[in-house]
Design a protein that fits this description.
The chain is an alpha/beta fold. The chain has a domain of about 70 residues: Nucleotidyltransferase, domain 5, CATH 3.30.420.270. Helices cover about 40% and strands about 15% of the residues. The protein has 4 helices and 5 strands, in the order ααβββαβαβ. It has a 5-stranded mixed β-sheet. Helix 3 packs parallel to helix 4. The longest helix is centred in the first third of the chain and has 18 residues. The chain is elongated and about 85 Å long.
Length: about 140
């Protein structure tokens, strides 16, 4: 037994090795941080400012964005008015009460926003919100 201690064989001391537990917790923390930033898909636009606003982020929210050139996006994918209507009708068939938010760049033509809102009224979507930025 004296020779085993001489050549570096060590006995394990009592206790719990928490290194694997810490590794798992760090992975869970990273996943949480990445998923917490992914709220509503869409493209970045310069929103008009409002004095008060209510958050409309829900899990199945559809985001319609109108950029400064008048291009319409549904969840960050460019669509035409006809494609937008078709996709929203398909979504309404599977989930009849889903919320929709409309984000229009502050420099966009008002007629384009009204055209999208009129489409949402024709489809009979009840949960529609307009997104604004916070005043500076």
């Amino acid at each position: 037994m004296a020779t085993a201690a001489k050549f570096g064989v060590k006995r394990r001391t009592g206790g719990i090795n928490i290194t694997p537990f810490v590794d798992v917790l760090l992975v869970v923390l990273v996943i949480f941080i990445l998923t917490s930033n992914a709220s509503i898909p869409g493209i970045k636009v310069e929103l008009p400012k409002a004095s008060s606003s209510t958050p409309l982020e829900k899990p199945k929210t559809k985001a319609i964005t109108i950029d400064h050139g008048g291009q319409i996006f549904l969840d960050a994918y460019p669509v035409t008015i006809a494609e937008l209507e078709e996709r929203l009708r398909t979504e309404k068939a599977t989930n009849p009460d889903f919320p929709v938010i409309v984000r229009g760049e502050s420099s966009v033509q008002y007629a384009k926003v009204v055209e999208v809102l009129d489409l949402l009224r024709r489809i009979e979507l009840n949960q529609v919100g307009l997104v604004t930025g916070k005043p500076a």
